[in-house]
Design brief:
The complex is a heterodimer of chains A (about 525) and B (about 325). With about 525 residues, chain A is of the alpha+beta class. Chain A has two domains: about 250 residues, 3-Layer(aba) Sandwich (D-Maltodextrin-Binding Protein, domain 2), CATH 3.40.190.10; about 230 residues, Roll (Dipeptide-binding Protein, domain 3). Helix content of chain A is about 30%, strand content about 25%. In chain A, strands 1, 8, 9, 10, 11, 12, 13, 14, 15, 16, 17 and 18 form a twelve-stranded mixed sheet that branches. A four-stranded antiparallel sheet of chain A has the order 4-5-7-6, with helices on one face. In chain A, strands 2-3 form a two-stranded antiparallel sheet. In chain A, a hairpin with a 3-residue loop joins β8 and β9. Chain A is globular. The two termini of chain A are about 40 Å apart. In chain A, about 55% of the residues are buried. The N terminus of chain A is likely disordered. Chain B is mainly alpha-helical. Chain B has two domains: about 70 residues, no CATH class; about 230 residues, MetI-like (MetI-like fold, Orthogonal Bundle). Chain B has twelve helices and two strands, in the order αααααααββααααα. A two-stranded antiparallel sheet of chain B has the order 1-2. In chain B, β1 and β2 form a beta hairpin. In chain B, α5 packs antiparallel against α10, α7 crosses α8 and α10 packs parallel to α11. The two termini of chain B are about 15 Å apart. The chains are: A alpha+beta (about 525), B mainly alpha (about 325). Chain B: This is ABC transporter permease. Chain B: Its main location: membrane. Chain B: InterPro entries: BPD_transp_1_N, MetI-like, MetI-like_sf.
Chain lengths: ~525, ~325
């Protein structure tokens, strides 16, 4: 039956030909909803993650948080207040037009024009006081004072096509009409709150993605997201629910990918009020002064916390103890700063020396739906503090209520997690002397203030020489942590769950980009 | 009749106003949406600009007055987070929720009423006892747990049905619906069953007790005495009489189906209004929360009105005219 055999092999061939096409679809379960497709509308992680597939910036950030060329092939400070960016030549937008310096200037101008944005990108564009098109492929950005982090700042501003975005409304972006970028993927469809589909951009200048089509499913609740992975409805999920990590690890059909992320958790302690609202003596009466203002008390609290046990038991191994504010490998992480050793006796001695031999009472505040096992972390620390004589109560709230109250200064000791790609940036927001005019210390809930730290942070931000900047950022961190401005606890892990047969490179900034996934 | 309608409309408007004021103050009291949305490096000018841009720089009563003024023109404001009109976001999600609620109600009616009739007619049979016991389970199991068990069983272990999402939709009169395709049905089945379970038990027990009660009535005895066929007694005389409580409860429960859908939608990642609401609360996206509640209250009021009108149709003793 030669003919039959022929038909059969043709059929096999046909199957073989269709298989790779099918295998080149990727479905990812996202843990947070994408609220808008306009890449400049609101500065929140889920939106940035999606926009990164369609759009690119002048610079890019690799999996380890290091700055890499993006749409600009190189950049340098031609003088202390002028950065020059050389654009990549021959980059095409999704509509076929070429990327030029005009698009870059337009994109950098655009965030300031969006008046009803609830979380504008203007913090990144504000340092730029003038933009100059030198030629078709060269842009100069001027700052008022020397400003080192500009190349990192412009990483947050996606370059859109001037032609497509000039008169576009948010609706035009959400319908895909104005979604014209240079990124490795093109827009296919958007079902709000449900799914977003992208297709490969065949004209992409860089490494072509391995997938023809990528579907992002919005699965904000933990159990359905995990169920979708287990049932094969999606190929990968981000943010694996903590309680299920062990089970996923044991299942041979799936792979668990993890790495320590940029998110560091620490305590903010009230260092500005003489009578802190949640610090009393053990009988509940106000104290003569606020003990948290005494560095010995802050040090005692730090020593009373058994970080190894906290990480091993409360966090089920999903973190590493921290002695720094930014994660290892990130600019400004001082290697010399080690996690504080557990020393309850030392803590008691310090408390006695500070005039509190019998301790005192306080309430620890934290969120209960934001970080890994956050409520249990607060409880564990409360128990540890009680052991050294600080009677600690616990109060946790949902994030939506917690952040507002914490930023208003309602708490005495409050838990905060922070992810940053530069130590000087983090220090500026977290321990810089609060100044609403400059935005310094906007998350410095404890209002720690040390002119020396401010100076070092300012010098670090002003240095356009990377090595010098790194040194200054580390000095600033060392100084602030010597004062126990905040008490670092641990760097949190990020976890992804994958179907077997997919390779994945986790990123320090917790993003899930389609090109990190590769068929094995 | 028209007096009845006018009174109802005025009541509805009052409810809407009270609801919107309550929600407005409640969301205002939870926290500041800007604390969640503005990026950490923003300075005072940035924050002030954003606050003013969203109208959040005013005291809450000014914001509320502005909101009511705009509402009179049919404008419920733009979502803070999505940047699109809040009412559009809610209406965009409404077909998914209504479809789910209608499917659940139909399942509850088609399963609950016949079984209830059976239990009411043959209360001593073993099958009736079994059904009765099962209905107790349906009453007491929490929705989210049942949903998760369904997902584990049919989605993960057996792999028969998808674990969540809405699947393929087809347009009917411009409205995207799941029931037009097999894929849509596969996605709809589990969430609809989950949502229906409680209502099914409720209708079952209601029908059973109403039937038992009706069987003791004089008209049934007389009908028996006249020698009418038992089937005619049950399906014409008894059924007509028990229909009134069933319609009332179904109507009222349809409203609560829409409200309970919040849980089911979350468990099944069903892109309905409920899921939108949960996320809007999490982000303090007040325009969306208010728009959702206004739409839901309007739905409730409409449903109650329809139930009252149906009453009059079913029971000639009910008059909708106001009494002198």
């Amino acid at each position: 039956m030669p003919r039959f055999r022929h038909a059969l092999s043709a059929l096999t061939l046909a199957f073989a030909a269709t298989l790779p096409a099918h295998a080149a679809d990727l479905r990812i379960g996202l843990a947070a909803d994408v609220s808008s497709l306009d890449p400049h509308f609101v500065n929140i992680a889920p939106n940035i993650a999606l926009s990164s597939h369609l759009f690119e910036s002048l610079t890019s950030v690799d999996a380890n948080g290091k700055l890499q060329p993006g749409l600009a092939t190189s950049w340098k400070a031609v003088d202390p207040t002028t950065w020059e960016f050389k654009l990549r030549r021959g980059v095409k937008f999704h509509d076929g037009s070429e990327l030029t310096a005009d698009d870059v200037v337009f994109s950098l101008d655009r965030p300031a024009t969006l008046t009803n944005s609830p979380g504008p990108f203007t913090s990144y564009t504000k340092p730029i006081v003038a933009k100059q098109v030198v030629d078709r492929y060269t842009v100069r950005l001027k700052t008022a004072t020397p400003y080192g982090p500009l190349p990192l700042d412009v990483n947050s501003i996606f370059i859109v096509s001037k032609k497509a975005a000039q008169n576009a409304t948010p609706e035009d972006f959400n319908s895909g009409k104005a979604l014209i970028g240079t990124g490795p993927f093109k827009f296919a469809s958007f079902k709000r709150g449900e799914a977003i589909e992208l297709v490969r951009n065949p004209q992409y200048w860089g490494e072509k993605p391995a997938w023809d089509k990528v579907t992002f499913r919005i699965l904000t609740s933990d159990a359905p997201r995990l169920a979708a992975l287990l049932a094969g409805d999606v190929d990968a999920i981000e943010n694996v629910p903590t309680a299920d990590i062990a089970r996923l690890k044991a299942n041979p059909k799936f792979v668990l990918a993890q790495r320590a992320s940029w998110r560091t958790l620490f305590w903010q302690l009230d260092q500005w009020r003489d009578n802190s609202p949640y610090v009393t003596d053990k009988a509940g009466k106000p104290l003569a002064k606020n003990p948290l203002k005494d560095v010995r008390v802050r040090q005692a609290i730090s020593k009373a916390i058994n970080r190894d046990a906290l990480v091993e038991r409360t966090l089920e191994g999903l973190a590493i103890p921290a002695g720094n504010i930014v994660s290892p490998g990130i600019l400004g992480n001082a290697k010399a700063l080690k996690p504080e050793a557990y020393d309850p006796e030392g803590a008691k001695k310090l408390l006695a020396a500070a005039g509190y031999p019998d301790g005192f009472a306080l309430t620890l505040h934290g969120p209960n739906n934001r970080y890994i096992n956050d409520e249990q972390v607060v409880q564990t620390v409360a128990q540890l503090l009680t052991r050294v004589g600080i009677q600690a109560k616990v109060e946790t709230l949902p994030l939506s209520a917690y952040f507002g109250k914490a930023r208003a200064g309602d708490y005495s000791v409050a838990l905060l997690g922070w992810g940053s790609l530069a130590g000087d940036f983090a220090l500026r927001s977290l321990v810089g002397t609060p100044n609403p005019d400059t935005g310094w210390g906007s998350w410095n809930w404890g209002r720690y203030s040390n002119p020396k730290v401010d100076q070092l942070v300012a010098a670090s931000l002003a240095s356009v020489e990377p090595q010098e900047r790194e040194k200054l950022a580390e000095q600033a961190a060392t100084q602030a942590l010597k004062d126990y401005a905040v008490i670092p606890l641990y760097h949190q892990y990020a976890s992804w769950g994958l179907k077997k047969g997919i390779k994945f490179t986790p990123r320090v900034d917790e993003f899930s980009f389609a090109w990190q996934f590769k068929p094995e | 009749m028209s007096g009845f309608m006018i009174r109802r409309l005025i009541q509805a408007l009052l409810v809407l106003l009270t609801m919107s004021a309550l929600v407005f103050v409640a969301v205002f009291a939870i926290g500041d949406p800007l604390a969640l949305l503005v990026d950490p490096q923003a300075d005072r000018h940035d924050i002030a600009r954003v606050r003013a841009g969203l109208g959040l720089d005013q005291p809450w009563w000014v914001q509320y007055a502005r909101f009511v003024g705009a509402m009179a023109h049919g404008d419920l404001g733009r979502s803070f987070v999505h940047g699109e009109p809040a009412i559009r976001l809610v209406l965009e999600r409404m077909p998914a929720t209504l479809e789910l609620a209608v499917a659940a109600l139909l399942i509850a009616l088609l399963v609950g009423v016949p079984l209830g009739l059976w239990v009411g007619l043959q209360p001593r049979s073993w099958s009736a006892r079994l059904i009765d016991a099962l209905s107790l389970l349906g009453f007491s199991l929490p929705t989210f747990w049942v949903g998760m068990m369904f997902i584990m069983l049919f989605g993960v272990w057996l792999g028969w049905l998808p674990t969540g999402g809405r699947g393929e939709t087809t347009l009917w009169l411009g409205i995207p619906l799941s029931i037009g395709s097999l894929d849509g049905w596969r996605h709809l089945l589990l969430p609809a069953l989950t949502l229906a379970l409680f209502k099914c038990s409720l209708l079952l027990r209601l029908t059973a007790s109403a039937t038992r009660e009706a069987l003791r009535q004089d008209y049934v005895r007389f009908a028996r005495a006249r020698g009418l066929h038992p089937a005619r007694i049950v399906f014409v005389h008894v059924f007509k009489n028990i229909l009134i409580p069933i319609v009332t409860v179904s109507g009222l429960e349809f409203g609560s189906l829409i409200a309970f859908a919040v849980v089911t939608e979350t468990v099944f990642a069903w892109p309905g209004m409920g899921k939108l609401l949960i996320e809007a609360i999490g982000q303090l996206d007040r325009p969306v929360v208010v728009a959702y509640l206004l739409v839901t209250v309007t739905l409730f009021v409409t449903i109650n009105l329809v139930v009252d009108l149906l009453y009059a149709l079913l029971d000639p003793r009910v008059r909708l005219r106001s009494r002198p």
